[in-house]
Amino acid sequence: MKINRAKKKFTNPLYLESGRILEPYELVYETYGELNEDKSNVIVVCHALTGSHHAAGLYEGDRKPGWWDGVIGDGKCIDTRKYFVICVNVIGSCFGSTGPLSKIYPTDKEYRLKFPVITISDMVKAQINLFDSLGIHKAEAVIGGSMGGMQALCFAIEHPRFAKKHIMLASTYATQPWAIAFNKVAREAIIKDPAFENGNYDPKKIKERGFEGLAIGRMSGHISYLSPDSMAKKFGRFYDERDGLYDLFGKFQVEKYLDYNSKNFVQWFDPLSYLYITKAINIFDATRNYNSLEDSLNRIKSKIYLIAFRSDLLFLPSEMKHIEETMIKIEKTEQVEYYEVDSDYGHDAFLVEIPKFEEIIMRALKE
Predict the structure, then answer these.
(1) Which residues of the chain have pLDDT under 50?
(2) What pLDDT is recorded for position 288?
(3) Does 228 lie in the same domain as 150?
(4) Which domain holds residue 265?
(5) 204: domain CATH number?
(6) 106 preceded by a cis bond (ω within 30 of 0)
């Protein structure tokens, strides 16, 4: 599989939903496979909250491959022998695209808390600008899970002629109070940590010393990505053998797992990016700029595939089902397919239990 990583700088302003602009701005992206002559074999893959442009493959020195390596590659579900796959790091992220720690042109001062609030629509608009600059004006499909699914839905509604198919996994048409509440805990933990320093922390120091606020926030988020069943199977009620059961600070194995996962997270993700991206997720509502969900979905020209997971507690299957029911209500029955995958893993099943849904994606791409 041919992998290419690149960065594109835009000097034209990006007009944001908030009324503010980003000028200039940069986007980092990766491509996999070869673009055919008429540029008709493009598949856009959109990443989730803590994902990045590195969706597949291994670079020298990498300990693990891209976040959807089980899906993208030669002979895999999204076959890079046939398709040219592109994954863009969203604006606001901390993996090279313009975000809170970027410099405010023409100064050497970083945006920090002066970075504008962004939305999922802004992320998608920036990607459309990138594709235009690359001469890519159409795609076979746009695919994404979680926040990536929100982007896929935005592509379908706001840029209806760009792709033939849009595939959403473990996502929603509007972020509900339950998910916003989990994000609230994470956001408060970050903001209230003295190490945050009102957004003026030293990124190098927090990697050396840790950042408890971001670590606690990650714990909150990570719990929402799993399910009671998956936690019970993975950890049970096992206690750390080195700790006494009646030691006040002794830990169950699930507690040790959360400690490890959250402290490791601080080493590779930025607190400000976490704040800005969770804000974009909270704002997301496909009805916000329209009269109703019927009105927004009526703009869709493509076919949309909805893949929900039975045990997803973050974005409930009923939220995806509601999209299907609304499409049927507005007489777009032939343009929608809904699948509920029998999984007890939780929200992160779209990253982990690939054999349970890969056939759906392959079938969708063949149609």
Answers:
(1) none
(2) 92
(3) no
(4) 179-279
(5) 1.10.1740.110
(6) yes
